């Protein structure tokens, strides 16, 4: 399967909560929030995950180091960690930096 690369740049305030960022991304991609998702924050080299931010308490059962996203903002991780990955549809793993 070919990899399709597209660029969409969005500007959001650094104090935006991850819950709201997910909604913004759903709107930008014209998705309907049908799939599971998470955010992963990486160190400066994009090699080591620093934090995994998840939407549901059930997600914490599979990753005890994950952080429940409600109430957490981008400013807690950025700009210190410059790389973030939004994974949508865990079956197909649509990844967005």
List keywords for this structure.
alpha+beta, Structural Genomics Hypothetical 15.5 Kd Protein In mrcA-pckA Intergenic Region, Chain A, 1 helix
Give me a quick take on this structure:
With 97 residues, the protein is α+β, with helices and mostly antiparallel strands.
Walk me through the structure.
- With 97 residues, this protein is α+β, with helices and mostly antiparallel strands.
- It has one domain (18-96): Roll (Structural Genomics Hypothetical 15.5 Kd Protein In mrcA-pckA Intergenic Region, Chain A).
- It is built from 1 helix and 5 strands, in the order αβββββ.
- Strands 3-2-1-4-5 form a 5-stranded mixed beta sheet, with no helix packed on it.
- β4 and β5 (94-96) form a beta hairpin.
- The longest helix is centred in the N-terminal third of the chain and has 11 residues, at 18-28.
- It starts with 17 loop residues before the first helix and ends with a strand.
- The mean pLDDT is 91.
């Amino acid at each position: 399967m070919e990899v399709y690369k597209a660029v969409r740049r969005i500007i959001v305030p650094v104090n935006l909560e991850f819950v709201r960022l997910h909604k913004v991304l759903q709107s930008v991609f014209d998705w309907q929030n049908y799939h599971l998702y998470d955010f992963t924050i990486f160190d400066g080299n994009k090699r080591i995950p620093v934090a995994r931010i998840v939407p549901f308490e059930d997600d914490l059962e599979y990753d005890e180091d994950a952080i429940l996203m409600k109430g957490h903002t981008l400013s807690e991780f950025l700009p210190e960690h410059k790389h973030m990955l939004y994974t949508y549809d865990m079956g197909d793993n649509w990844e967005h930096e």
